[in-house]
User: Which sequence fits this backbone?
């Protein structure tokens, strides 16, 4: 018996392996058949969404810009006469204010007073010479009339050329006097307008010439705001010149100053490709040269617009509406944002705009309207209802 088992042991082992492998194959076939059976998917219920139906309104664009306070011109102070400085006003110091006609500094007038005296003496001498020539001419005329009755008195005898030369010397001396008096008046340098002093390089005892700058000033009334602006912003503003603006300074953020656009640059900046608007104000004393300011400009009106909750936009310019029980996408043109609202051009809202689009939103998704709200007006006062 043992001998028989040993003889057929290999056959029994092979048969056992075949049975195990065959069973595994059959089991796998059964599992594959079960997985291939399809079962009907459970019915999916439509999602519930909330929608709004906004009312049309007129929207006035608000353009916010940043600018810097600049002076139309900065005047360099250069003496018109040379000399030693004898006086410098306390108002002619950096940051000080000086009224129109106020003395900034004075130059020693002694040389210019002497020049005036010299011209006065020259005038007196020329007048004396003229009087002598006129008297000689009168005497010569009397003698000529007594001795020669049939001929006209010659000009040389009547001293005509000499008298004309004497009168010319008087006119020249008078012109020299006026020039000397003008130079004398220029020894006192006065402010040509209500000004603020930017810088000075002057003190008593300093000798100044007629070619060196000793300081610089600017007119308070010349202060204005230079504001860079893009072409898109210019399109929103419309006809810029004459538009009003609200100016807020860094030093007084809670107080705005009224301004007006007075000029627009004739060319774009070559580097930035931006234009420039110049804004003046009736309160220039509230501005500081070089200060950065914020500018709010009310632009043109857009007649048909909607105000939507900002959450209704799933991207910069996409909203979803309900149409015949399914979602449809709409591309919108966003005109501006105010708080939690987006202002867009009017478009076809179908049955309503979805306020909060569901996750995984896609076109054709079946939905039911859970709540519907009419948005008659959500604005902050920058638009007008038609």
Assistant:
């Amino acid at each position: 018996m043992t001998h028989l088992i040993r003889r057929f042991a290999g056959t029994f082992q092979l048969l056992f392996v075949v049975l195990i492998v065959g069973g595994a194959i059959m089991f796998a076939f059964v599992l594959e058949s079960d997985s291939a059976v399809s079962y009907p998917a459970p019915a999916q219920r439509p999602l519930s969404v909330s929608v709004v139906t906004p009312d049309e309104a007129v929207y006035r664009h608000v353009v916010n810009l940043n600018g810097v306070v600049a002076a139309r011109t900065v005047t360099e102070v250069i003496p018109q006469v040379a000399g030693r400085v004898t006086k410098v006003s306390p108002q002619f110091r950096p940051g000080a204010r000086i009224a129109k006609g106020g003395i900034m500094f004075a130059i020693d007038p002694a040389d210019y007073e002497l020049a005036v005296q010299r011209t006065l003496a020259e005038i007196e001498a020329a007048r004396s010479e003229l009087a002598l020539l006129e008297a000689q001419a009168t005497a010569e005329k009397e003698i000529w009339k007594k001795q020669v009755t049939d001929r006209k008195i010659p000009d040389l005898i009547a001293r005509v050329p000499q008298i004309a030369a004497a009168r010319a010397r008087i006119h020249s001396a008078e012109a020299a006097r006026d020039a000397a008096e003008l130079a004398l008046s220029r020894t006192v340098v006065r402010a040509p307008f209500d000004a603020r002093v930017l810088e000075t390089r002057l003190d008593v005892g300093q000798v100044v010439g007629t070619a060196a700058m000793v300081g610089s000033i600017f007119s308070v009334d010349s202060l204005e705001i230079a504001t860079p602006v893009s072409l898109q912003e210019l399109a929103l503003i419309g006809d810029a010149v004459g538009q009003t603006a609200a100016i807020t300074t860094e030093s007084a953020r809670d107080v705005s100053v009224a301004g007006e656009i007075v000029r627009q640059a004739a060319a774009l900046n070559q580097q930035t490709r931006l234009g420039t608007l110049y804004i003046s104000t009736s309160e220039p004393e509230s501005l500081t040269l070089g200060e950065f300011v914020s500018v709010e400009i009310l632009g043109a009106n857009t007649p048909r617009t909607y105000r939507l909750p900002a959450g209704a936009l799933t991207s910069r310019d996409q909203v979803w509406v309900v149409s015949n029980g399914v979602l449809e996408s709409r591309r919108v043109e966003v005109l501006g944002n105010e708080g939690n609202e987006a202002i867009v051009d009017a478009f076809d809202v179908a049955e309503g705009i979805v306020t909060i689009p569901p996750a995984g939103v896609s076109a054709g998704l079946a939905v039911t309207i859970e709540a519907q709200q009419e948005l008659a007006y959500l604005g902050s006062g920058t638009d007008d209802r038609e």
